[in-house]
Amino acid sequence: MRQLTIASIFTAVLIGMLAQTAAAQDKKIVAKGDDPGDMALMFNLSSVLNDAPTNFDGIGVGFRYVMAPRLTIRAGAGIDQSTDESEAGGTTVENKSSLYALEGGVEYMMFQTGAVGVYGGAILQFATGSDEPEGGPDISTRAFTLAGVFGVNYFLFEQLSLGAEYRLGYTQLRRENSDTDQIDTSSRIGTGSAGFILSFWFQ
Asked: At CB < 8 A and 24+ separation, what contacts does 24-27 make?
């Protein structure tokens, strides 16, 4: 709850500061994403601001490329590694976990007005990870996600946009225990998660 509160405050302050700066610009800003050849580097702020499990897990950076009017392809990747230590009875126990993820998809610009662009699309994501508790069995995980995407980009400057994105789709999860070779699978269809994406555009 504390992390979510900090994330909300940070996001609100960031949007407010940048929006106020953008409003002071004399030049009229128009949303990109409609002209073939436009490109953008994407940075997922959600993984920085919120540790809650989402289908954005592991996706830290990405790339957008406008192939045709209103049609954009995108790709993303990320690495998440952590080590936790706990001490009990004078003994220190170390637990390690890792996650590697790749995703790709398409976006279609449904409409844009001024500095705001609204898009829909689809994302395919694959992730693999492991949990390695000291003194316990290693657990390997694989996840596959196919999701629909709805998002809004607001251009603070001509080359800088801040976007909010929501995902809805299907996720299949596979977990394997290294000691027993037991394999557990699960699947989920439902609402996805919200995310914030900062994009730097160029051509």
From this structure: 25/157, 27/158
